[in-house]
Amino acid sequence: MTNAHLLIKQQGAVLSITLNRPDSLNAFSPDMILGLTTALSDAHQNPEIRAIVLSGAGRSFSAGGDVKSMGMANSVEVYEHIGRLNECILTMKATEKPIIAAVHGFAAGAGFNLALACDLIVAADDSKFALSFSQVGLISDGGGSYFLPRLVGPHLAKQFFFSAEPIPAERLHQLGVVNYLVPLEQLEQETLKIAEEFASGPGRAYGMIKKLVDHSLSSTLEEILEQERITQTMMVTTADHKEGLAAFKEKRKPNFTGR
User: Using a CB cutoff of 8 Å and minimum separation of 24, what contacts does 130-133 make?
Assistant: First the structure.
């Protein structure tokens, strides 16, 4: 796929997608968002891809919305732009493969929310996050109002939204928002290592785990229990389950195929 605002590379079973507008700190453009949605949808359907890494080129992960173009768009254009972003976020959550954000520099505004929409976040230890919407008189978009309160609680989420203060990655790591904290010079290597570990795992089980955990945020206990029962009934028929059992009995490492 050709898109000047994205760099896409497959490394074995891992697909690396890099936001590529470094001169604007990878601020979102329509082409970037549409391309990201397409790349994620294609990855979802490609059995060769079993994990996805999302990163940013240049000095930062992403500044989110393009401040330079703010004020130039009318209400209809804003509505359409956020609709494209919403479709991208929903595609991320529907993709039954682990998506890992590799964050360096700044992840601000919708760039922060894009990282939150991933399944895991690996952050450089000197990186910072900020929900800067209120500084320009706006509310959060890109799902931040959904994701962040579920991770840190409503009071702390409101503080971050109201203040727009930069949040060190170390604090978000302590809060459980960031999964892994690594030195900047090791960020790419460590993220790829984590992605490769997931890519060699039981892909169908990971996809179902992702669905169940995400659905649990808006489901009752009874609904999740029933979803678990139905899903587990299906999972015991998979090749990965059979391989996992055989490896356990033979005291060896399983060779999962994602089937």
Answer: 130/106, 130/164, 130/165, 130/166, 130/167, 131/160, 131/161, 131/164, 132/64, 132/108, 132/164, 133/109, 133/161, 133/164
The bridge status of strand 6-11 relative to strand 14-19 is antiparallel
- The pLDDT of residue 71 is 60
- Spatial contact of 41 and 91, defined as CB atoms under 8 Å apart: yes
pLDDT at 68: 65
pTM score above 0.90: yes
pLDDT value of position 47: 94
State how far the Cα of 216 lies from the Cα of 11, in Å rounded to an integer.
Answer: 32
Write out the E strands in the chain: 6-11, 14-19, 51-56, 99-103, 106-108, 120-124, 128-130, 167-168, 180-182
With a cut of 70, which residues of the chain have pLDDT below it? 1-2, 67-72
Residues near 112 by beta carbon (within 8 Å), at least 6 away in sequence: 64, 129, 130, 131, 144
